[in-house]
Amino acid sequence: xxxxxxxxxxxxxxxxxxxxTSLGGQQVNKCIERLNDLIWKYNVVTLDRLILSLVLRSHExxxxxxxxxxxxxxxxxxxxxxxxxxxxxxxxxPEHWVFQDWHNxxxxxxxxxxxxxxxxxxxxxxxxxxxxxxxxxxxxxxGNVCLRFLPVxxxxxxxFIELPPxxxxxxxxxxxxxxxxxxxxxxITYLYYTLHYYERRLYDRPSLKLKLVSAITGALRDVRPSxxxxxxxxxxxxxxxxxxxxxxxxxxxxxxxxxxNAMDPNQKSPTVTFDWRFNEFPNKASHALYVTCVEMMALPxxxxxxGNALIDLVVKCCPLKDRGSIMSxxxxxxxxxxxxxxxxxxxxxxxxxxxxxxxxxxxxxPAKPHTTPLSPFLVYGFNQPYLSHCEMTCGFVIALAxxxxxxxxxxxxxxxxxxxxxxxxxxxxxxxxxxFLCHLxxxxxxxxxxxxxxxxxxxxxxxxxxxxxxxxxxxxxNYMDSIIDFLYHIKYMFVGDExxxxxxxxxGSMRPVLKEKLRFIIHIPKHE
Length: 528
Description:
Layout: H1 2-21, H2 26-41, H3 47-56, H4 61-76, H5 79-91, H6 102-113, H7 121-127, H8 145-161, H9 167-177, H10 187-197, H11 206-219, H12 232-239, H13 249-263, H14 284-297, H15 303-321, H16 326-339, H17 342-356, H18 359-363, H19 376-379, H20 383-387, H21 393-407, H22 410-413, H23 416-424, H24 431-441, H25 445-451, H26 453-473, H27 480-495, H28 500-507, H29 512-517, H30 519-522
Helix pairs in contact: 1-3, 1-4, 3-4, 3-8, 9-11, 10-11, 10-14, 13-14, 13-15, 13-16, 15-16, 15-17, 16-21, 17-21, 21-24, 24-26, 25-26, 26-28
């Protein structure tokens, strides 16, 4: 098998070279006819193996386009494979176990109409007519060329996405062969990871995104109930791709509400209930998360617009429409922004920066004017102000950030240190800003200690440097004792004396009263 695979790879390289140097026209047609005979008449090599070899070759530039041109011709120009795909999709169902006598009535009927020769059986028939084979083969209990080609088709789509000039060819392949995704074991998972991984490459190709989503979900139209994946509004847009569409607040609200209800065990979910034993997802909440993310990534709008719309929905719309379940909405937003590509969740960093320079934070006043400023420890909280109907944007931002960072993997959370150092540190000049930041990152120090100790050390050093900035810019620190308690908590719970050298330099530049209270962190005698 290894030798045969090497021969197939060499043959694939030869095909690319031959087509690159050919004059086109009749020569190309003859080459495709001979290839078609090798595959379907003489059974020298199977279609899925040859296409896989062509897809995995490391061609670039013009040779890559020629390679994809060969793939397109092999799949679409001859009728043998297209006929097999059309008949198999029309006559079969992915839930084969629900049929009586499926093996004889469906499986063997298909193989009787389109027999598959094994191990050069076809070549032997034409080389030695009327010869009987001495080899005895086991019967084919399951599978055929259509099902074997399906994982190869996954890679074909990815390779075509990587080369923008062949986008139209990919759309043609999806039109003719997209029905095969009716039998894909994990169609939504594949669609999710494709849109997620190629988010940047598909950024300026919204029509291709819509085509990809339409082909894969549309293939399951006959075997899935209505509303199992995409919302009705999005389906209407798929039927009219030429019309320009900008989703509004109502659309985002219905999409998020469907996901929130799917996670709530006390509410009847609008998503369809499946037999989860035979589904690609283990439960309705996981299914709702994936289909929601797929729909959001397929929207023909920039990622930052989608991210800001979701945050505005929770901050502004949810308190008016569904105030009693705000925690469920915040949790849902955290799950969605974590599952979407980084370009969608980066808007949260922008919201944090905007909040740091907002007058609402610097003045520590509630939404309604009061003569006495509120305590930052009340303003930066969420539950009590929200229950009192005096919630503030800064409290919402902290709650949203905690939700997103809680659901993040450590790989997604680690860039927080870079964001603090490059963007936040230059902004923090006031005591209120420093307290806001402590509320923001304090709950995640323990996780950094367990999973990324170096990141925790960097965050602690940045905290001290920002405290130094606030100390130099403020005439007095009104909450000095609370800040000192927090810093001592960090020392004795997380860092110990690991940062003694760095902190000696920073604390030595602070005002005397603050330096005196922090002397036990770096073990400075009182008389010094």
